[in-house]
Write a structure and sequence with these properties.
With 84 residues, this protein is α+β, with helices and mostly antiparallel strands. The chain is built from 1 helix and 4 strands. Helices cover 17% and strands 26% of the residues. It has a two-stranded antiparallel sheet with strand order 1-2. Strands 3-4 form a two-stranded parallel ribbon.
Length: 84
């Protein structure tokens, strides 16, 4: 999918004027206008999320071995368990 990142105004002579960037960078998107807003930027949020994903292991429950390297504990439901 092609993304539109810049626009230009068509001049009277048919040429295009100077490019104008559209959209916003992560540092300019701030949680600031809702009830309970944190004031964090999208840049800070994604950095925090990625750090969390890298540092915290997860538990997986299923019958197939997980391929995600963040899984620290696999509860294998495909193997019969012995009762004692």
């Amino acid at each position: 999918m092609s993304l539109v990142r810049k626009v230009a105004e068509k001049q009277q002579d048919g040429t295009l004027g100077a490019d104008s960037t559209i959209g916003a960078v992560f540092t300019d998107v701030v949680d600031g206008e809702r009830t309970g807003a944190t004031g964090y930027s999208l840049d800070q949020f994604i950095d925090s999320y990625l750090a969390f994903m890298a540092a915290n292991p997860f538990t997986y429950v299923g019958n197939e071995e997980p391929t995600n390297h963040h899984i620290a504990l696999w509860v294998d439901t495909g193997t019969a368990q012995n009762s004692f």
